Amino acid sequence: MQRDIEKILIGRDEIATRVREIAERLAADLRRELEAEGDPEAEHRIMLIPIMTGSIVFVADLIRCMPMKLSLELIAVSSYPGQTMESKGAHLKSELPEGMAGKHIVLVDDILDSGRTLQLVRSMVLERAPASVRTVVLLNKRARRAVPIEPDFAGFDIPDEFVVGYGLDFDGYYRNLPDIAVLTPEAAAGDPPEGDG
Ligand code: 5GP
Ligand code: MG
Prior knowledge:
This protein is α/β, with parallel strands linked by helices. Helix 1 packs across helix 2. The protein is about 25% helix and about 25% strand.
């Protein structure tokens, strides 16, 4: 796997520091809202919804920095058609969770690229009458935005490069890389590596 990596864009320590910061800001923001509602016991109304599979590592780290009562419901979205590096659209691959009405929903995704995924999910969630909706992404590729959506919380602005690691895949692989990295042109082209492979 290491020989497929051209460069590390964001290292694991930098990610860890930033994830902790985002978690603290998000938790503080949610607490403020619950207090403003006059319901300090309302933590059970916080529902995090990570968009699978890319956000699996991010959300695992994020929730462990949020010392409050919350529930977690996964959804799966896929971009199409076929091309691995280009998102042309998005469709929901799973049911939306039940019981979103009156809840404070936090949508979590790995990366905001064209914005279509988050916009689709956000609009579907809003139809279920939640108390509020927040969006959190680890990475933000501003230059690529095709629809007008900005995340409420974002970890890092990154340039228009295809990245893998920390949950993000190429063709299903590299999600387990602890850093966020750019692949070599050979690996990104799907060429078999030289040697014993
Ligand atoms: P959007 O709908 O915003 O265009 O795309 C969001 C989804 O596309 C992300 O959740 C992610 O799955 C995928 N994506 C966008 N950019 C990248 C990238 O640089 N690397 C990887 N691995 N996936 C990406
Ligand atoms: Mg994704």
